[in-house]
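Progress report, Aim 2. The chain analyzed during this reporting quarter is listed below.
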Amino acid sequence: MRIVSFLPTGTEMLYALGLGRSLVGRSQHCLYPPQVKSKPVAVSSRVKKIAPQDSLAIHKAVLKLRKQNTHQFEINLPLLKRLKPDLVITQNLCSVCAASHDEVAEALQHLSPKPKVITLRSQKLSEVIGEIERLGAATGRKAAAARLAGNLRRRLEVVRKRVSKLPRPRVWCCEWLEPLMAAGHWVPEQVEWAGGTDALGIAGKNSRWLKWEEVRAADPEVILTMPCSYTIRQTLQEKHRLTGRPGWKNLSAVKNGRVFAVAGEFFHHAGPRLINGVELLAQVLHSRELSHRLRTCRKISG
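Predicted structure tokens for the chain:
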């Protein structure tokens, strides 16, 4: 089977199911596991070509493309024809993070024979694990998918039991820095599993734009900055977009030194590593009670 994945979520699922050799093409954003970088890029972001790596500039670039009625992602159709995929993995959740189902469908009209398409559309953590099983069934890896799904569910239960009797701090998961955003979809569930309460995001719903006054009113006890597609280093370079706001130092999270930059790949790529994100959150939210510390976050001061 020859597979092209148009988003990191699909790519990570494929590798977790032992299908790395079947992957013949990827998105520009598919960077994990590292060996995937050797695969040809079949879809790339127009935003990366026209905007510097700055949250406000990226936001403006996305809006500009939408006003021009231009797709945000560019599909390399000649390459796609040469790759001759049997299966294409796409999504129908966010047109900013990856090529949308409609973009892919438009490109696939030019392929003959047309490949099978699997569209990922999970909004909740349980649905993500269910989609791993669905992908396994569609690729002849049903048993492997069942084992992986079972292991992920067991890991969630381990975390739930460890934090079940601990205090549940109010948390803000900051998904974008300018303008501000609260993470939605499965992220509030990750916070819940990890022993916290998401103060601004809504589980199973889209991430939403925020006004700074909403953040001050919620007064989160822990702030987790996780801009989509950002590394921790990129987040720290833009920390001034938070620390320079009026009343920043009066927030409970800031006064208690509980503001962190975390690796967004554990929260925005809806694959097996979301469970790593839950385990990371548990360590961050309950660092005093849980002795083992993960090295996938950095404190933000200022």
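The domain at 3-121 is CATH 3.40.50.1980 (Rossmann fold). The chain has two domains: 3-121, 165-299. These observations will guide the mutagenesis work planned for the next reporting period.
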